[in-house]
Design brief:
The structure is a single chain. The protein is of the alpha/beta class. It has a single domain, classed as Rossmann fold, CATH 3.40.50. 37% of the residues lie in helices and 18% in strands. The strands form 3 sheets. Strands 3-2-1-4-5-6-10 form a 7-stranded parallel sheet, with helices on both faces. Strand 5 (119-125), helix 5 (148-167) and strand 6 form a beta-alpha-beta unit. Helix 4 runs parallel beside helix 5 (148-167) and helix 6 packs parallel to helix 8 (248-259). The longest helix is centred in the middle third of the chain and has 21 residues, at 94-114. It is globular.
């Protein structure tokens, strides 16, 4: 089976590509990565597989329809990670998020249809559900995005659904909680806080730091995606969650504790516009396919800090 992976030089995508080419899965076919190598994409993330004869890298934009169609092989499994994904950047410049996340997804869907791809797996986010004050989001909940980023991802989810209903393609959607792990671009909370603390700077938190997120190790996320590829069903949506939930302040305090830092100042800055208070996913549907997480957040965080 051949795979076509968009955004495969990014944090999550590169972890997925390395998993595909590892001995544990026994993937025999080719793995083609398409990535435009913007600020968050880094070819060094793929050094481990760069000399594998099954691996092929193409630099390019998912909005380039001619390029996309030339790269997809008939019968490919398409796993679509490529996206603008940072909420702060979406508030400053929404247009690029609409272009990449909505138009880019449409180009990929159209190309998948024309090239007779075997399957289209669209990687989405828990943020499309909006803020969840109590309980957990299930896959059938209405989409209530509150940022330009999450709105663009919700729109791309709807496009995927439309291609299933209208054209009959085998497309599936995953919605995951916050990821953590090595080589994450340092604009996200955990790597940014580690950088600041290790270099003598204050940690920074929006508002009072009480906003809550569910966290999953990137390798668990990748295994969840592969579970959907191999055991999921056409047209279905699957939440990928860990059940491990922390406030942003709890995360920063844990990092300080593990780094042996006492009395370091935390700068509480003006809250982000439209800042969702809490996300939480019900992952029962995926668990019913046999998926379960391996990593525990606090243990894994300590291991990551040691490797840093």
């Amino acid at each position: 089976m051949n795979y076509f992976v968009t955004g495969g030089a990014g944090f999550i995508g590169s972890n997925y590509v390395r998993m595909l080419l590892s001995d544990q899965l026994g993937i025999v076919g080719k793995v083609t990565v398409l990535d435009s190598l913007t600020y968050a994409g880094n070819l060094e993330n793929l050094n481990d597989v760069s000399k594998d004869s099954r691996f092929n890298f193409v630099k390019g934009d998912i909005c380039n329809e001619l390029l996309v169609k030339s790269c997809i092989l008939e019968g490919d499994v398409i796993v679509h990670f490529a996206a603008e994904s940072h909420v702060d950047r979406s508030i400053q410049g929404p247009a690029e998020f609409v272009k990449t996340n909505v138009v880019g997804t449409q180009v990929l869907l159209s190309s998948a249809l024309e090239r007779n791809a075997k399957m289209f797996l669209h990687v989405s986010t828990d943020e499309v559900y909006g803020s969840v004050e109590e309980g957990k989001s299930i896959e059938s909940d209405p989409l209530l995005p509150n940022s330009p980023y999450s709105a663009s991802k919700a729109a791309s989810d709807m496009l995927v659904r439309s291609y299933v209903q209208t054209y009959g393609i085998d497309a599936r959607i995953t919605r995951c909680c916050n990821n953590y792990g090595l080589n994450q671009y340092p604009e996200k909370l955990i790597p940014l806080t580690i950088h600041n603390l290790k270099n003598g700077y204050s940690a920074k938190l929006y508002g009072d730091g009480s906003n809550r997120r569910e966290w999953i190790h990137v390798e668990d996320h990748c295994r969840g995606i592969q579970t959907v590829v191999t055991r999921g069903k056409k047209g279905e949506i699957y939440n990928i969650g860990s059940g491990e939930e922390f406030s942003n302040l709890e995360i920063v305090n844990l990092l300080m504790q593990y780094l042996g830092i006492e009395n370091r100042k935390i700068d509480f800055i003006e809250d982000r516009k439209g800042h969702d208070f809490r996300y939480s996913l019900d992952a029962t549907k995926l668990q019913n396919l046999g998926f379960k997480t391996v990593s525990l957040f606090e243990d894994s965080l300590a291991e990551i800090l040691n490797l840093y």
